[in-house]
Amino acid sequence: MTNGGNTWDVAYSRIVWFEQLLRSHQNVQTVQRRDDIIFEVERQKQRDHLIALCCYEYTMGITAVHRAQAEFGKLDLIHIGGGWCGYTEEAKKYCLSSRIGLYVSDEMTGALWRDEVWSYHKKDRDGNPIYFMRSA
Length: 136
Known about the structure:
Blueprint (H helix, E strand, L loop, with lengths): L11 H13 L3 E7 L3 E6 L5 E6 L4 E2 L1 H11 L4 E3 L6 E2 L1 H9 L3 E3 L1 H7 L10 E2 L5 E2 L6
Parallel strand pairs: 3-5, 4-6, 5-7
Antiparallel strand pairs: 1-2, 2-3, 8-9
């Protein structure tokens, strides 16, 4: 499948990488791509349907989250890119309260196992949450 183009300037290589992450995940049963950067995912264990946005934002702020919702409607997951990317505290808090998983690549694999997909976070050695916070 070729890149259909998107207004989020997400490169085709990033889209393909994210699709491969989803397709190779042991808890993902099926994946369908639409609107170039939206993925519909059926999970095996939870027997549910998730809608995931693949974007690339060095720092994902609340304005970009609202834009995503306005353009695509209900979202369950927003993947913002690799571990060098991050999100603002405001965006993360909003997504948590709206039950939207806002994640960098390092968090996606674990999140796809969670029943409450929006609430996943990695932990440090002491059990404290690790977030990928950045200033806007």
